Amino acid sequence: MVEKLRIYNSLSKKKETFEPLEPPFVGMYVCGPTVYSDVHLGNIRTFMSFDVVYRYLTYLGYKVRYVRNITDVGHLENDADEGEDKISKKARLEHLEPMEIVQKYTNGFHELTQIFNMKPPSIEPSATGHIVEQIEMTQTLLDKGLAYEVNGSVYFDVAKYDKNHHYGKLSGRKIEEMMESGRALASQDEKRNTIDFALWKKASPEHIMRWSSPWGKGFPGWHLECSVMGTKYLGQTFDIHGGGLDLQFPHHECEIAQSVGTYGKDPVRYWMHTNMLTVNGQKMSKSLGNSFLPHELFTGNHPLLDEPYSPMTTKFFMLQSHYSSTLDFSNDALKAARKGYKKMINGLRLVKQMQYVDDGAPQDERTIQQVTNIIEACHSAMNDDFNTALAIGQLFNLLKKINSLHTGQLAFGALGAEVFEEIKTTYIDFVENILALKEEAPSDYKGLVEAMVEIYKEAKFKKDFDRVDKIRAGLKANGIIVKDMKTGIEWAYEE
RNA sequence: GGCGUUGUGGCCGAGUGGCUAGGCAGAGGUCUGCAAAACCUUCUACAGCGGUUCGAAUCCGCUCAACGCCUCCA
Q: How far is the CA of A408 from the C1' of B38 (A)?
């Protein structure tokens, strides 16, 4: 028997059996990118991990509403809640409209999700589209006495909240320690305590993005958008909230405080955090300057890269580790992943066109048992907190059987039609629909045409006209015509 | 300084009390016009030191090393 889906919950720090609030529906919220520059490979890992979660939940039959936001305002330069909004700053630097920046990098992000074969979320809300709701939540928190206004800015009163609730339960922090270790930065005097965070910030005169509010012109704090959009689309309590491990504190901790403060209940049942992609053992991040942009990877144009690596190679590389482990980026690992990926995808091509052949061989119980165990192990792997690495291992075991059937080393009859079909659907489902790996055709088909034309020329020279006709027909069927000209043999697109 | 995580064979990377992970690389074989693929067999492991246990890579303690969060970050 395959056991039920279990998820590691960052809140309880345990693996828990997944029980949706209202089956078969599942609400899942993932913190999306801040669109002030290109997303890098580390960001991609997180979104890819949750794409697999989304796909697997759907595969299990759940009706998933997957919300992934676009942060297009409210992300300050540092958590002192001073400094400048990232979008505004970039807009000023590039002499562009803030929304032009947002559009540019949102487009880039969307392109990448397609390149990596990720499904779009059900809803992709933006922070600027929910200013009204953010003002409302801020007002509610003010009304409840959990926030205070100073000079047109509104801050969340963490100490007061912590009297009745537990601030720090997600990240395992103690409020007293945080109060002590907080850094005293300039003009932080507006806050009662250093750990208080902004719900609404007054816009300085040069701040481009600003909205009217009961407290004057300003813009929302970073943490607010996720609380607002999560509850708006998924309810006051929903099933899964995901994001990178580096968002656990303070971002997700603040989200909990805001929601609990506003609605009096925990917003999320299962918190999931993906671990970091590292380079030479160090976290890949924009601020450390060691991040790879996806296109640098695809072109190989980066000092740390020996050669280019394709999107699916990269995806396979990432899926070969568990989302909760750090994954170290290296050329050797990528090269190994490329071979593994090709092996797996060749298997997909093969199994798709394989049909059961009744070869009259007797059923072999031992082999059937073996195969059944592998198939079960594939499901168990995914049910065990989406263990894609383990699932891939099992798929390779399954692939051995597929290849053996193909080469005749294993008789179809030994398995029987039913087991064969099970192998086929399992392999296809897992590779194509769950891990979502796809074939990468050589981008330049012209080389193939040239090779065919060469053979055509030889056949023509040998007056092997049967062959000549065959090649011409084959090319024509693919929209290519061969032209025998006085000056030589050429090819062209059929008009 | 506080909180936390990790250390698996040549490389990557699952596993977490007794049962083959898997991929890449290496060796041998089957197959084969050549080459490749495929299949079969196979060599290198669980940071170190102690402890618990019939039994530990897996649990506990210590040591060493690396990393993450506490500043924006997926």
A: 10
User: Which nucleotides of strand B lie under 7 Å from a protein CB?
Assistant: 1-4, 6, 10-16, 20-25, 37-40, 66-74
Query: For residue A184, what pLDDT is reported?
Result: 47
Domain extent at residue A255 = 14-274
Query: Do A166 and A244 lie in a common domain?
Result: yes
Protein CA at A60 to nucleotide C1' at B47, angstroms: 40
Name the residue among A388, A393, A379 with its Cα closest to residue A53. Answer: A388
Rg (CA), chain A: 28
Per-residue pLDDT, averaged over A388-410, amounts to 95
Q: pTM for the complete prediction? A: 0.94
Compute the average pLDDT of residues A261-283. 94
Last residue of a domain, one of A393, A409, A434: A434
**Which nt has its C1' nearest the CA of A177?**
B2
**Residue partners of A83: CB distance under 8 A and separation at least 6:** A76, A77
Whether residues A267 and A183 share a domain: the answer is yes
Instruction: Record the tokens describing residue A364, joined without a space.
Output: 């072999």
pLDDT digits (tens, 9 = 90+) for A67-82: 999 999 877 665 455 6
Distance A408 CA to B30 C1' (A): 13
